[in-house]
Amino acid sequence: MTLTDLSTKKNDTPVSFAEKAYQLLIRMITRLELAPGTVLVEKDLMAELEIGRTPIREALQRIAKEGLIQHLPNRGMLVSDLGASDVQSIYEFRSLIQGAAVRLAAVRATQEDKNNLKALDDMLEQATSEFDIDSFVALDWRFYEAIGRASKNIYLQETLPRIFNLHLRLWFYISSKTGIWHPVARSHNNMTSGVVDAILAGLPDKAEEIMTSHITSRHKEIKAML
User: Fold this and answer.
1) Which of 15, 25, 143, 223 is most buried, judged by most C-beta within 10 A?
2) CA distance 74 to 188
């Protein structure tokens, strides 16, 4: 089994057309193929994705709930902007939610949770070393999902995956401005490794400090680019 297989495998259940549309649109939005402010026309999306109107509409509504799409009167659906105030709100929310999640995980994680987090951290490191961005993104999603599960808080478990795409788009934005994604990924690896080590050692203050310091650093970096 390849790294890509490991990073993307969740289950063998076939995805619906609505889920396929969601995944394709999320990829296009987070990777800035659909730039901030782009007007989304259902007819054009149907032709490009080769998916029917109803699944496209369901996917757009789902993405709108995540904050990546806005519906404006007389303009329709468009990709949300990356304004300074929006970015600040995202990073403030990330710091609160992800900081709390790793703090709880350091106290509540089972041995199975710890083993899973260590394995994911190792695979993230491998994906970065191999310049495998698709595996890196898929593994990073699984990492935050695992943090939520280790926190033993159902609301954090639900929230962490939902805000993942918000900060993923900002991650790609930073990478696009610097011209290369690898240094950004390496910095992220340093954070995940530090967080996992703190969780394994049962150090909640340390886990939270590493996570929030990383988020603050990313926020400062993107503020300078806007």
Assistant:
1) 25
2) 40
Query: Is the Cβ–Cβ distance between 79 and 36 less than 8 Å?
Result: yes
Quote the CA–CA distance of 29 and 26 in Å, as a whole number: 5
Give the CA count within 13 Å in the CB-facing half-sphere of 145.
13
pLDDT at 42: 93
Distance, C-alpha 92 to centroid of its chain:
15
pLDDT at 9 over 50: no
For residues 7 and 142, the answer to whether their CB atoms sit within 8 Å is yes
Mean pLDDT is lowest, of 51-65, 74-88, 113-127, 128-142, for 74-88
CA-wise closest residue to 82 among 172, 161, 164, 216: 172
In this structure, the number of other CB atoms found within 10 A of the CB of residue 185 comes to 23
CA separation for the pair 196, 125 (Å, rounded): 13
Would you tell me how many other CB atoms lie within 10 Å of the CB of residue 158?
A: 10
SS3 category, 179: coil
Q: Which domains, and CATH codes, for the chain?
A: 3-79 (1.10.10.10), 84-223 (1.20.120.530)
Residue 188 makes CB contacts below 8 A (sequence gap 6+) with 124, 140, 171, 214
Given a cut of 60, whether residue 12 has pLDDT beyond it is no
